[in-house]
Design a protein that fits this description.
Elements lengths: L3 H17 L7 E2 L5 H14 L11 E2 L18 H13 L20 H8 L21 E2 L2 E7 L2 H18 L9 H18 L14 H5 L8 H4 L3 E6 L2 E5 L5
Parallel strand pairs: 1-2
Antiparallel strand pairs: 3-4, 4-5, 5-6
Helix pairs in contact: 1-2, 2-4, 3-6, 4-6
Amino acid sequence: MGLSETYQEHIKKDLLELNKNNRRIQLLVVTHIDKDHIEGAVSFLEENGNNSKIIKVDEVWHNSYKHLQFDKQKVNNIEDEETKALSLIKYQNSNNVKEDGISDTSVKEGVTLASLIYENKYKWNNMFNNRAICIEEEINNTINDVTFILLSPNYKKLRKLSKKWEDKLDSVFYNFKLSEEVIFDDAFELYMQNLNESEVELKDTSSSNDVFDIDKLAMNDETEYAAANGSSISFIIEYKEKNVIFSRFSI
């Protein structure tokens, strides 16, 4: 759904029109945590609420903290120091940080995709039995006459994303007790979204002397891209005689 402005100015009116004609979204896929992928979806889910104000959504595909390979503990309340550390991560990676560094030390609750999916009780990765979207999972991959062929991510890519988050947690508070608290999803999402914007390294392609080998580019090591990009959901949709590929790259 692009940026928030993309949703508000271009997509929203079409969704309202579909809703008026008793149509719905059968599957909303948010491929990974990039601002231009997630911001419009956050605006949409915030407005849509749990009463389908804009349009009914049957299911959402999105991999968050809750789907990664962690040994999460079942605890009723996380420690105060952990809450403070997670709140700090949220604050440092939110839009609240101004040049003076002290403008607004709070972060509005319910501003992440994960928190909105929780709050509005959408079916989340339901086709994958609420587990991570992953090519190793056995699923019924059809909706009516539409077939989904998953290309990415795999367990290896998701483990890489898990490690990136664990390293961040260790850097702010030693020996975190990982739990199912929503604040973990919030902090994870805001951190990864900010990380994507700063970590992706684009090679200089301006030189006229360069000759590009498409096969070689396709084999580039995954480490050239941010961890969240590497774990992006990619798939092919098959419907009758037609195939459409949804990839994390623009071609």
